[in-house]
Protein: CBM-cenC domain-containing protein
Organism: candidate division WWE3 bacterium
Amino acid sequence: MNPKKSALVTIVVPFLFTLLLQQATHAGNTPPFTTLTKTPSTPNGRDDWYLTPVNILLASTDLESGVASINYKVDSGNWVTVTQSDTLNLAPNPSFETAHAGSSINTLSWEAGLQDGQAVYSRNTLNYVLGTTSIKINSTGAGWHSINHAVSYAVANPLSNMSAEVWLKTESAAGSAYFKIFAVSKDVNDNFVYTEIAQSGSINGTTTWTKVSENFVVSVSDAIGVYMEVGLLGTGVLYIDGVSINNSAKSADTSFTVSTDGNHTVSYYATDRSGNIETTKSTTFKIDQTPPTNWRNSNAYRGLLGPSDHHLYVTTVVDDPTSGLSTLTDKFQYHTDRNPGFGSFSDLMQCSSTWQPDTWAPLMSPPFSPGATTALLLTPKTDFCDSNWKICKTVRFYAEDVAGNSSTKDLCINGPWIKLRGGGLAGSRLGINMLSESSDKNTDSVIEAGNAEVSFFTSTKGWVVKNSTGAKDYSYTELLEAVNPSPTEIFSVLPTADGVYIKNGNFTINPTSVPNGYGTSTFKQVVFINGNLRFDKEIVLASTSAVLFVVSGNVEIRKTVSEITSAIYSDGTFYTAYDTNEGDQTGTLRLKGVFVADKFIFQRTLQGTDNVEDPSEDFTYEPRFGNLLRGYIGVNAVRWLKTD
């Protein structure tokens, strides 16, 4: 006999036998089995609400032909199909359904490991995940008690990326339950060699059915196969089911995140490569990440019976459209000029009582059911100590929703507010958060906010655009490069003729820098100020004139100036009363034109209770500035479309 041929036969025959054995198990009519895992695993809010996005992991197991796809949809959305590759299960008899009387555990292809009288191995039909059978190991000793399929190892190539998984359940396991991966090879004498190449994570104690998985590389250079050894180290009971080995770098799974507020249903199923389809399963959960919001309709009013004009009730309205508002959790505190910070007096009707810093007082809001989406919050009658309304007296409301989110809103009683007229655009790169609310709507314009917050600022049209990127902002330098013709330099006096001009350095609008007849002349001009622009006197133009000040620095307006007619574009901050001091009396500032700045600081506040009816800054948009100056500075257009 040819010895080389004989050696070849002894190696190939077991290889073919194992391959044929495994091919016989690949076809079948059992559909895949998919599990869903949520992270966080349980709701982290109240009343079964999640306060954060929920990550969903779908993991599928197929014990025969392998998982072909995992399919899922969220709510009424479209089905998403995630295809899987290299999921053919190479483990023999993976759910231990096929019995074999000659086996040490009465199951085909699997054998018990250590037989030392300290463990009992058996097939179990009471605890299982897949099929109707599992393997039970009841260990009373400290050793490693396990089962393996070394006699029917899975065919594998050297350096392959593979993965393995198994379902485990433990009862009073003092040690760890896990599995090991061994590579199978042969030595020069045709003897089998088994080399441990990987080990999975473990479970212990008493657990429900848990899928344990591990990715590994067949790191033995002459390997012909791999097998699993699943067991328990120490005392306890271990159940084993649903074994899988495949030629994939990962398990058959997919993950996604549900991050929108509301009640959600995730439906899912898997298909295998034999065409079997898992019955669709689903899970439900609910997310509320948004605290109470849309504070509005604030009001402060005096009681009919006194005792003074600074004893007030204060109200506001708040919404929570997702989980709804919680009851008996709303409260308030307030601030007056008597004490620093927020708190409440021990007797709300007496500022002569003890001041309690950081202390909340209960509201007396009208009753509403838990989960109501809108609620009116009402303070008891409260003494705000005096009638000096030029100093802001602030009420801080607190609201909480059913899920456990909370928010506060500070409301300035009789505080200053602004008004914008003319049907233009009231825009902010951030949100719009007013301290106090006007007696009427703030604007007749479209409101545009760079984020979702628009508080105490409303439009007669009801048009609000939130989370807007807005139109492009142009800097002083970009506008200077774009203007046509090139600017003519000026020094100390504004011109009264058409044209483009530049002042290098700070410039102040005062009686000496504004020529006689400036307000009655007819002209179209752009004036670049390479510095700060200060208004120490009014500018009021004829209806046929237009001037645009493009300012590289700040715009500063004296507290005694009552009206400015112009267009102003500033890279810096716009101050409406740069020289104001605490307690100063200021009147309403009326601004007519177009005004753009990096930041607006509204510094005016009216005296007494004038803020109730009158704005502190009153803007009027006048489109003539864009129309008259388009020949110098170019044209930008924005079109607003209303969609359902």
Summary: DSSP finds three helices and 48 strands in the chain. The helical segments are 3-24, 476-482, 624-633.
